[in-house]
Design brief:
The complex is a heterodimer. Chain A is an all-alpha fold. Chain A has one domain (2-498). Helix content of chain A is 74%, strand content 1%. Chain A contains 20 helices and two strands. By secondary structure, chain B is mostly helical. Chain B folds into two domains: 10-71; 83-159, no CATH class. In chain B, helix 3 (83-101) runs antiparallel to helix 4. In chain B, 34% of the residues are buried. Classes of the chains: A mainly alpha, B mainly alpha. Chains A and B meet through helix 8, helix 10, helix 17, helix 18 and helix 19 of A and helix 1, helix 2, helix 3, helix 4 and helix 5 of B.
Chain lengths: 499, 161
């Protein structure tokens, strides 16, 4: 199989001393930023985008891979030691892991999370390496109408199908789509929604939006409800190492978590919440001591943490092969590619194989580095958690604005950043999901371009959208995924009114 | 809705939800107005004015849906918020933007933001925080401007470095 040869070539790229150094800096920065409370992997990548600005694409993407995985590791440390999951995917980890830390078993909780992430990350990256070439072969045959249909599926699944409320998810998505319209239309050169402001002609920067929504929005939100509860840092007491019993109870959940995480992440279904919760409930059902769940069961950390990491590698499958981001973090990765004018997809595999395979290979290396770095250095990361909250958030805001100040130091751009911060605060306060906005901003313009290309080729005949089987099937899936949550909710309501 | 006949008290209208609906409707109106000014010369397929209208229709539908949710009081419960903290951070952001806009440079601008944010999180030791802020932002400036050669805006203070 040619995946082996390609992966070997990628390894040769990733193992160059300079690239190893980039990977090391990446995992180090990723863990350091990811461990800060309230900062999930997506924001970690967004905050560190400017750091990679001046590097060459190869080195910077490798650093990115490290930041991505490092952010995930760091997030689980925060979830275990203070009960604040940086993202909903670490909720299950926080549930059991924080209880374990309270019971003086923080060390084994951190260890099973780290080793589980390593096992899941390695297996899922292997899955990525072997799945990607065949998906690329398939995707090469896609016409613009098929891509448009695929984006429709992504829009619906990211915003409507798996959220709490489809209306709120779709509202977020459409705000993102609106922001995506701003700027010069690439096909005709006409300005849309620019209102005569030159800065707006370039469109809305993904990093400005993401940093505003995630960093500033989060800081405003946490500040606004500071009077409710203080977070408490659990010190790591006792042994750092897992006992034989811990190993015995952990290895099956790791593998099962991987089995949930990778396929669900690889489907354009977005988010790691579903696999982590599936894994959590499965482990609870299969556990020898189900009564321990909710009081600090190690299976409840091992399984979801593995599922979380496997699905993170899974989301790289649609991202690298189709250019389709299905989570906020993947959207930030796409922004990282775009900063070098690179567009992930089948073409990139053909044109720059050393880049794509170097990235995939460096995911393995990042994983190994994280395991080596994390277990002994956990004391260092814990110190970062002890930074007093006022300085922590003040520092986060300085770094968050620095990215925009470095890229475009204009009053308009900075005001947009602040406005997105307010938007992020209000969306958090009124419970609208954030990720669909970012996905809408990135995918909206691509979907529009594909649709218009398809219609231009067909001389304006809309039937082109249903001419290929792929697009018919994808559009049907999108329609079902859009209607299903409403239909199910309706059914639920009928039931509720019956009794 | 089938729950109406149960005869329970009429749910309270959520005024914030009504504002959200109005905002979405306004956004839709702006999209249509902006699209109407685009002169299309596309012969085949869609011109640049079509997508904004499609998105505006979607926003309109969502405005109605959000309005219904708000009128039925269907919004998720929320806890009280501290407006002072929010305004302090927003004030810090405004100050930061003003200092950058008037050429004051990176260090004073982000120091102002740092102190305002730290105050929003309950710190009252302004001078200590200011000192920390200046040291931190100077280090950031040196690291990024000199080591990574990112160009950060320079004011009088930065030119001394």
């Amino acid at each position: 199989m040619d995946a082996f040869a390609a992966l070997a070539n990628g390894m040769a790229v990733a193992l160059q001393p300079m690239n190893l150094l980039f990977a090391l800096i990446g995992v180090f920065l990723g863990t350091a930023v990811g461990v800060l409370p309230g900062i999930g992997p997506a924001l970690t990548v967004a905050l560190l985008l400017p750091v990679t600005y001046k590097l060459d694409p190869g080195g910077s993407l490798i650093m990115f891979a490290g930041i991505y995985y490092g952010g995930m590791y760091g997030g689980s440390t925060t979830a275990i030691l203070i009960n604040t999951p940086g993202e909903s995917a670490s909720m299950a980890t926080a549930l059991e892991g924080n209880k374990m830390a309270k019971a003086g078993r923080g060390g084994p909780a951190l260890a099973t999370a780290a080793i589980g992430s390593f096992v899941a990350g390695t297996l899922a990256t292997l899955g990525l390496a072997f799945l990607a070439p065949s998906l690329v072969d398939f995707a090469v045959k896609f016409g613009p109408e098929d891509y448009f249909a695929l984006m429709c599926v992504a829009f619906v699944t990211v915003s409507a199908t798996f959220g709490d409320s489809p209306i709120r998810g779709l509202t977020s998505l459409f705000i993102g789509l609106t922001l995506g319209l701003v700027g010069i239309d690439k096909l005709t050169g006409q300005a849309r929604l620019a209102f005569g402001i030159p800065e707006l002609l370039d469109g809305v920067e993904v990093t400005t939006l993401a940093v505003g929504l995630f960093a500033i929005g989060e800081a405003l939100y946490v500040a606004s409800r500071r009077h409710h509860a203080e977070e408490k840092l659990e010190p790591v007491r006792g042994s750092l190492w897992m006992t034989r019993e811990d190993w015995k109870r952990s290895w099956k959940p790791w593998l099962r978590g991987t089995m949930f995480g990778f396929p669900i992440g690889a489907l354009p279904a977005g988010g790691a919440e579903i696999p982590t919760f599936l894994s959590y409930s499965t482990e609870k059902r299969l556990a020898a001591h189900p009564e321990e769940f909710g009081k600090g069961a190690i299976e409840g950390v091992a399984g979801p943490e593995a599922a979380n990491n496997a699905s993170a590698a899974g989301t790289l499958v649609p991202l690298l092969t189709l250019g389709l981001p299905t989570s906020a973090t993947a959207a930030m990765m796409l922004a990282g590619f775009q900063q070098y004018g690179l567009n992930p997809g089948p073409l990139l595999f053909a044109e720059r194989p050393e880049l794509v395979w170097g990235l995939i290979a460096s995911l393995f290396i990042a994983n190994v580095m994280l395991l080596v770095l994390n277990l002994p250095l956990v004391g260092l990361w814990v110190k970062l958690l002890a930074i007093p909250q006022p300085w922590l958030y003040a520092g986060i805001l300085v770094f968050a604005t620095m990215g925009t100040i470095a890229a475009k130091p204009s009053v308009i751009e900075l005001s947009m950043l602040a406005a997105f911060g307010v938007l992020g605060f209000l969306m958090r306060r009124f419970d609208y999901p954030i990720a669909p906005v970012v996905v809408g901003l990135i995918l909206g313009p691509i979907a529009e371009a594909q649709l218009r290309r398809a219609l231009a080729i067909s001389l304006g005949d809309p039937m082109v959208l249903v001419q290929s089987w792929a697009s018919v099937i994808l559009l049907t899936i999108a329609a079902i995924a859009l209607i299903a949550p409403f239909a199910l909710k309706g059914l639920g309501r009928f039931k509720a009114s019956d009794d | 809705m089938i729950t109406g006949k149960s005869g329970r008290a009429r749910p309270k209208t959520d005024s914030a939800g009504v504002v959200v609906a109005a905002f979405l409707a306004l956004l839709a109106a702006i999209l249509v107005w902006d699209a109407s000014k685009i002169t299309s010369n596309t012969i085949y397929g869609m011109g640049p004015e079509v997508t904004p209208v499609v998105i505006a229709i979607g926003l309109g539908i969502l405005a109605v849906a959000n309005l219904f949710d708000a009128l039925r009081g269907n919004l998720p419960a929320r806890e009280s918020a501290d407006p002072v903290a929010v305004w302090l951070i927003l004030g810090g952001l405004a100050l930061m933007i003003a200092i950058i806009g008037f050429g004051g440079g990176f260090i004073p601008a982000t120091s102002a933001l740092f102190v305002a944010t730290s105050a929003a999180f309950g710190r009252r030791a302004l001078l200590v925080d200011l000192a920390i802020a200046i040291v931190l932002t100077t280090l950031v400036y040196l690291a990024f401007d000199k080591l990574l050669t990112l160009s950060l805006p320079a004011g009088p203070l930065e030119r001394l470095l």
